Amino acid sequence: MWPFICQFIEKLFRETIEPAVRGANNHLSTFSFTKIDIGNQPLRINGVKVYTENVDKRQIILDLQISFVGNCEIDLEIKRYFCRAGVKSIQIHGTMRVILEPLIGDMPLIGALSLFFLRKPLLEINWTGLTNLLDVPGLNGLSDTIILDIISNYLVLPNRITVPLVSEVQIAQLRFPIPKGVLRIHFIEAQDLEGKDTYLKGIVKGKSDPYGIIRVGNQIFQSKVIKENLNPKWNEVYEALVYEHPGQELEIELFDEDPDKDDFLGSLMIDLIEVEKERLLDEWFTLDEVSKGKLHLKLEWLTLMPTADNLDKVLTSIRADKDQANDGLSSALLILYLDSARNLPVSSVLMDSLLS
């Protein structure tokens, strides 16, 4: 299948990624791929998990542990600035979710195929001419790390690639599904964190300046920094949309802020199925990957209701908690699907170039 997968990837680059890059920044309006060769080393699937519980009977959910180490040739240029760059090799490792839905009673039995990563995959790209690319106006504040993060997040929920297999399928509903729920994260406090700051060349152990990074899919929140405290109290609240479960997790990492490189203070991963089941979790969690430290979280699972019958009750509840979040707490969710546009005005820049 690999040669045909490569054909699909090339089509994806030219028809989806290239226009998206051009539209992202005025300086990139002449961006194009001049060569796309993914190479002959196929993607490897190291394991497959199939979900049989908590799933719709008209869908099949697969989690694929994928690993791709490929020698590829991808060349790009920005004609406006006579800039050329390329990619010599790509590595990508992570969990890709594949959803086959809806299941239908005629061949090919599957109406469409959706692909995405549940969380940011490990991505490494070996660039050629990256310095030239970063000299382009509007891009000179970027780095290769930031570019990798942008690419990785494009692959992660709620972004997805949806391929219809039959003409009757409602592609918009599959590509932009309604969220399964909303996770309200009360990021409260921590205890007994490691002291990372040292004095007198490491002889004297000090405290830390802890902060947290919270991820749900490609939704990322960062807490404030609490200076010189091993028992910090943040008392912050975040709200994240949850599009997929089972399999999606709340990821939290704590760091000590430093002038050069921030030190790691521990991590935590919580399965959102457990939160949905309990509806409310208020617990102290032991931090992983460190010798000590605990984190106090309060997690609420909020279900989306199709009518406004309970709106007054919800508004009363969030008014009581209004001081918990900088932007206030949400009472409803607006979903806007932009379908198409017609009779748009012709760009004056385009007219000038046509006339000249």
Automatic annotation (TrEMBL):
<feature type="domain" description="C2">
    <location>
        <begin position="165"/>
        <end position="285"/>
    </location>
</feature>
<dbReference type="GO" id="GO:0005886">
    <property type="term" value="C:plasma membrane"/>
</dbReference>
<keyword id="KW-0445">Lipid transport</keyword>
<dbReference type="GO" id="GO:0005789">
    <property type="term" value="C:endoplasmic reticulum membrane"/>
</dbReference>
<keyword id="KW-0812">Transmembrane</keyword>
<dbReference type="GO" id="GO:0031210">
    <property type="term" value="F:phosphatidylcholine binding"/>
</dbReference>
<dbReference type="GO" id="GO:0006869">
    <property type="term" value="P:lipid transport"/>
</dbReference>
<dbReference type="InterPro" id="IPR039010">
    <property type="entry name" value="Synaptotagmin_SMP"/>
</dbReference>
<keyword id="KW-0677">Repeat</keyword>
<dbReference type="GO" id="GO:0008429">
    <property type="term" value="F:phosphatidylethanolamine binding"/>
</dbReference>
<dbReference type="GO" id="GO:0005509">
    <property type="term" value="F:calcium ion binding"/>
</dbReference>
<keyword id="KW-0256">Endoplasmic reticulum</keyword>
<feature type="domain" description="SMP-LTD">
    <location>
        <begin position="1"/>
        <end position="166"/>
    </location>
</feature>
<dbReference type="InterPro" id="IPR051634">
    <property type="entry name" value="Extended_Synaptotagmin"/>
</dbReference>
<keyword id="KW-1133">Transmembrane helix</keyword>
<keyword id="KW-0813">Transport</keyword>
<dbReference type="Pfam" id="PF00168">
    <property type="entry name" value="C2"/>
</dbReference>
<dbReference type="Pfam" id="PF17047">
    <property type="entry name" value="SMP_LBD"/>
</dbReference>
<dbReference type="GO" id="GO:0035091">
    <property type="term" value="F:phosphatidylinositol binding"/>
</dbReference>
<dbReference type="InterPro" id="IPR035892">
    <property type="entry name" value="C2_domain_sf"/>
</dbReference>
<keyword id="KW-0479">Metal-binding</keyword>
<dbReference type="GO" id="GO:0061817">
    <property type="term" value="P:endoplasmic reticulum-plasma membrane tethering"/>
</dbReference>
<dbReference type="InterPro" id="IPR000008">
    <property type="entry name" value="C2_dom"/>
</dbReference>
<keyword id="KW-0472">Membrane</keyword>
<protein>
    <submittedName>
        <fullName>ESYT2 protein</fullName>
    </submittedName>
</protein>
<keyword id="KW-0106">Calcium</keyword>
<dbReference type="InterPro" id="IPR031468">
    <property type="entry name" value="SMP_LBD"/>
</dbReference>
<keyword id="KW-1003">Cell membrane</keyword>
<comment type="similarity">
    <text>Belongs to the extended synaptotagmin family.</text>
</comment>
<dbReference type="GO" id="GO:0005544">
    <property type="term" value="F:calcium-dependent phospholipid binding"/>
</dbReference>
<dbReference type="InterPro" id="IPR037733">
    <property type="entry name" value="Ext_Synaptotagmin_C2A"/>
</dbReference>
<keyword id="KW-0446">Lipid-binding</keyword>
